[in-house]
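Intended use. Records like the one below are meant for learning the mapping from a protein sequence to its folded structure. Do not use them to infer anything beyond what is encoded.
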Amino acid sequence: MKKVNVLLSVYNPNRRYLEEQLRSLDNQTYDNMDIIIFDDCVKNRCDQKIFEDCLKKKQYHVLPYKEKNLGYLKAFEYLVKESEGEYIALCDQDDIWTSDKIEKCVDCLEHDDTLLVVTDRKLIDGEGKVLCDSVRHTSKQPHEIWNTGDDIGVRNFFTACAPGMCMVVVGDFARSTLPFSEYTGHDKWLIACACACGRVSFLDEPLSYYRRYGQNVTGVLAGIKSKKDYDEQRIMPHFELIKEFDKRYPGYEGISRALEFANARLSHNPIALLKNYSIAPNLVKFEVVMAVLPEYIVKILIRFLQKQK
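Structure written out for the chain above:
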């Protein structure tokens, strides 16, 4: 049985949520697991007794602290760098996994001979009440309803095709993608790299309970107040990401289309945006509206959307 490293980054966690997550890890049916934990909260370290109390069956160890906060991206980069397992599973501090998640994901990777597997997920609220039984079978968005073997790399540059907590990855491949790009999340980076280097699987079973509550719902417009903010914080990072990716993985067939869409967004050209509608439908609709409306109306629209839940 090949080793799986579960990589858990914590930052000032809600104790009850973390306990529930840790117990779901401890109850995994897959035996050869090593849970690697990193606490990135410099000012309020997590009491390590919680790991002793909740992880009775699975091996775990806590990485040495850093003197400064690394941030979410670099924390997972540190965890991946310190891993050694044949497979790695990315883990957040406030979700819950079904007991057979790791076993089924490893079986899927070995059966499909792919580099990365994504599972479906349920949504729960802060009290654990199920809000959605299956994101895949509820959503109509293309970034949520793809299939094993699909090349989702271009779409994934612009809209996340999976959260990290739904992913299990071949270890050597994940370590080969370091350092992560600073222009995107670690999960989007891993999916993009997997599409350039091989294939990605989708396992159509909700094997995780993804907790949605006020503190972790940031939204695409968080921190945005104007067209300029949107350009600087949302459009330019995607453009820089694609340029960096092209240097790291030259020859990826989807790069020309990704650059075409990125340039359409930079130029605010409605016709060019609509030409690439299938890549990110919601993104295109919003940016076409932004392109034709005056600045003062865009500011009002942004404020309105930020108040929606």
